UniProtKB/TrEMBL annotation:
Location in or out of the cell: Membrane
Ranges where the record places region Disordered: 1-22
UniProt topology in membrane: Multi-pass membrane protein
PANTHER family in the record: BLR1003 PROTEIN, SOLUTE CARRIER FAMILY 17
Cell inner membrane listed as a keyword: no
Organism: Nonomuraea harbinensis
Annotated keywords: Membrane, Transmembrane, Transmembrane helix
Domain of life: Bacteria
Segments traversing the membrane: 29-47, 67-89, 101-123, 157-182, 188-207, 243-270, 282-302, 322-343, 349-370, 382-401, 421-440
Secretion signal, residue range per the UniProt entry: none
Residues covered by the Major facilitator superfamily (MFS) profile domain: 34-444
Identification of the protein by name: MFS transporter
């Protein structure tokens, strides 16, 4: 893949790349093909985790599990995830991106098969643990590969597209899997997801590649593909703490944790809420699983491209990505807090759609915001660390929701427990959005990281 790796160009508002004589050539057709393949990967990653929510009611009945026990099994996917992601961060920038992603998806798919052949609570727990570890590096890998095909000012739309993989999984494939579960068994849902993963792996083996804005170009590789001497600044690195202690990283961690808690709660308990709280049948509840994601898709595809356009016109990322993004997340939290104020079916559905869409719109800008301050050679590792720490903080989401539901059931409140769960997620979203808006400043922190990197280079040269 050396032929795909050429010196990166200078990116607006981002000192992590140097201007060189040989500017990378943007190849839009190939970039879109790779981006759509990565969209398919996010879809499969989502289904690998969401399948547990789709089978929640029949699986709990079949295996004799309480809501808290099932929530703990669901949360197990996040127990090893942060540890695996942190370990991966140490080697992330040295591994081949294409082959690493291929291996991860293959492992995800293989982990679904044991449930089809011999389902048990213990096996669910073990496979969820391993799945969480294997899934941990995927998000940062996919974004790094995508960003290798797009310059900084054009990354909002690709980031939004990758995020919509979960939404398309809910809207298009979740209803199909629900029908398969109803027609055959809840275990058959796991087999279906495995087959989808195997098909993607075959396609990626032929199509996948890293682009001209690659984040792991070394001087030796640059010299191999560019005429003239390699640029000596390519691959520069800053002290890791100079990145992790910035307000941008801390704000990113806060908002990603808040959004992550809502997402994992929705993954685990939304079909059950539709069934027990709103009175839908099991098939209809599963089919409606993706309804809140409609607004997520709308906001992502509005916010991503409009944000890119504003950045290209010179509006600071602090405004476009941080202040607006934090405000949208907080507004989503307020929508969830308003759930007890409405009744019936249409009102709660509308507020859930609005709240979920507003909160998850942050995925269009959060990763590009962090990537903006990170030296190109460290992009994969830093994104991995951010995702790992936010995953560690959000791991309690499904279990805590299960505890709230069991308490509501014991007190006779029944379906009202779901309202308490979503209100809890809404309050966390408000806090996360506010912290992101207050702390993150990519223009300021990019200069701080650049200064730290220059100081380190000076010390090494002395």
């Amino acid at each position: 893949m050396v032929s795909e790796r050429v010196p990166p160009q200078s990116e607006p508002g981002n000192p992590d790349t140097a201007t060189v004589a040989d500017q990378p050539k943007h190849r839009p057709v190939v970039a879109w093909v790779i981006t759509l393949m990565l969209l398919g990967c996010t879809l499969i990653s989502y289904l690998d985790r969401a399948i547990l929510g789709l089978v929640a009611q029949p699986a709990m009945a079949d295996l004799g599990l309480t809501a808290a026990e099932f929530g703990a099994i669901s949360g197990a996917a996040s127990l090893l995830s942060p540890i695996a992601a942190l370990l991966f961060a140490f080697v992330a920038d040295r591994l081949p991106l294409k082959n690493t992603l291929f291996t991860l998806v293959l492992v995800w798919s293989l982990l679904q098969l044991p449930i089809f052949f011999a389902a048990s609570a213990g096996l669910l727990l073990v496979t969820r643990l391993i799945l969480g570890a294997a899934d941990a590096p995927a998000n940062s890998l996919m974004h790094s590969i995508a960003y290798s095909w797009w310059p900084n000012e054009r990354r909002g739309l690709p980031a939004a597209i990758l995020t919509t993989g979960a939404s398309f999984g809910k809207l298009i494939f979740a209803p199909v899997i629900v029908v398969i579960i109803a027609a055959f068994s809840w275990e058959a849902g796991f087999l279906t997801v495995a087959i989808m993963g195997f098909v993607w792996c075959i396609a990626w083996a032929f199509v996948g590649k890293v682009g001209p804005y690659a984040d792991d170009v070394t001087p030796a590789k640059a010299e191999a593909v560019a005429e003239g001497p390699a640029d000596p600044t390519v691959g520069r690195r800053a002290p890791l703490l100079s990145i992790l202690l910035t307000g941008t990283f801390i704000g990113y961690l806060a908002v990603f944790t808040a959004a992550g808690i809502l997402v994992v709660i929705v993954l685990t308990w939304l079909p059950s809420y539709f069934q027990e709280g709103l009175g839908f049948s099991a098939v209809m509840a599963g089919s409606l699983f993706g309804v809140p994601s409609i607004m997520s898709v709308v906001f992502l595809f509005l916010y991503g491209p409009l944000g890119d356009k504003a950045l290209s016109r010179g509006v600071p990322a602090r405004v476009v990505r941080v202040l607006i993004g934090g405000a949208l997340v907080a507004a989503g939290g307020l929508s969830l807090l308003a759930l007890p104020l409405v009744s019936g079916v249409a009102g709660p559905m509308a507020l859930l759609m609005l709240g979920y869409g507003l909160v998850t719109s942050i995925y269009a800008v959060a990763n590009p915001t962090l990537a903006q301050i990170v030296p190109a050679a460290q992009r994969t590792s830093v994104l991995t660390i951010g995702l790992a720490l936010s995953g560690l903080l959000s791991v309690v989401g499904p279990w805590l929701a299960g505890v709230v539901l069991d308490a509501a059931k014991a007190s006779g409140a029944g379906a009202d427990g779901y309202l308490d769960v979503f209100m809890m997620a809404g309050g966390i979203a408000i806090a996360g959005g506010a912290l992101f808006a207050l702390l993150a400043n990519p223009e300021r922190d990019a200069l701080k990281v650049e200064a730290a990197r220059a100081a380190l280079a000076a010390r090494n040269a002395a």
